[in-house]
Amino acid sequence: MILSFLISNLFISSEIVDAAENRFVIEGEKAVDFTLKTVDGKVFNLSDYAGKIVIVNFWTTWCTYCQEEMEELIKFRKEANSLNVELLGVNVTSSEQSEKAVIHFVKGIDLPFQVGLDVHGEVSKTYQIIGIPTTFIIDKKGIVKKKLIGPVTSDMLKELITQ
């Protein structure tokens, strides 16, 4: 099943990234700040959520695992309101058919969290996204505590943020 997940959800950038010129996100180190436009046309920065635990979920509309995971993320968002946790979605728009299709998808399921559009794939490259969904847990100090490749559940997220 894991091999099937990796094969069906792997996307490869046509650009070779030189690690000496770019900063990447690594567990145990400070998360790299980013700015994205949302599906509502607003803009947010990761740094806007300093002082909170932040969960950042990278996904696409065509990923079956991502679609199934959305129910769990919605459940988590509703249950985590009192935990000082922020959930952010990052759509890997650079691998989508169109930005319009993403906006239609998000509004169609009425996601209760911010969804940023990674139109040029820059955030995905910085966060070294090779399979989707991929989720990062960032602590209140902005340190990446965990990188999870594959679908997550609400219970899994709740357990990880309380460790």
From TrEMBL:
Protein name: TlpA family protein disulfide reductase
Keywords (A to Z) from UniProt: Disulfide bond
Organism: Metabacillus bambusae
Recorded superkingdom: Bacteria
Start and end residues of each Thioredoxin domain: 25-163
Cross-referenced InterPro entries: AhpC/TSA, Thioredoxin-like_sf, Thioredoxin_CS, Thioredoxin_domain, Thioredoxin_ResA/DsbE_sf
Pfam families: AhpC-TSA
